[in-house]
Amino acid sequence: MSSLSPQRPKPLHLLAAFASGGLLTFAVFINAEAGRYGGALYSSWLAHGTGTVAAVIVLGLLWFRDKAAVTAVRNKAPLWAYLGGISGAATVMLTSTAVNTPLALAGTLALGLAGQVAFSLAADKWGLFGLPSRRLTVRDAGAVVLITAGSLIIIFFGMGGAA
């Protein structure tokens, strides 16, 4: 258990999280379209290739502006942090495949959200990836149940239903 007291999120934090959800939805849609025309592997390569080009450009601009900051950041990441690219590639392939099924965009994202919450609660419980471990509450279980129920409603009863 962590001795730090939990902080309440600021409105800007809430807005940033909400906006990232919108951007994630847009990215999943774009990746699904690429997957529809070129397959899941093509979609992943396209997404990560353009991301790599963008990252190289940003790092290049930062390098000319503040070389010390770029070097300091490079030396601080734990080794497991580099596994994000592997999970990102798998995520793009899985979502670009799932979106092009009867689940569609809403069903894919709803189940994806349920999976994210379940995994994040496991990470909180066991202190994975350097997070402080915390005791899960009935409220956490209720959130998972409600998100999963909402996902199933979207999939089976929303917009014509996938079944």
From TrEMBL:
This is Transporter family-2 protein. Keywords: Membrane, Transmembrane, Transmembrane helix. One of its GO terms (cellular component) is plasma membrane. Pfam families: DMT_YdcZ. The keyword Manganese does not apply. PANTHER family: INNER MEMBRANE PROTEIN YDCZ. It comes from the Bacteria. The chain crosses the membrane at residues 12-30, 42-65, 77-97, 103-122, 143-162. InterPro entries: YdcZ (IPR006750).
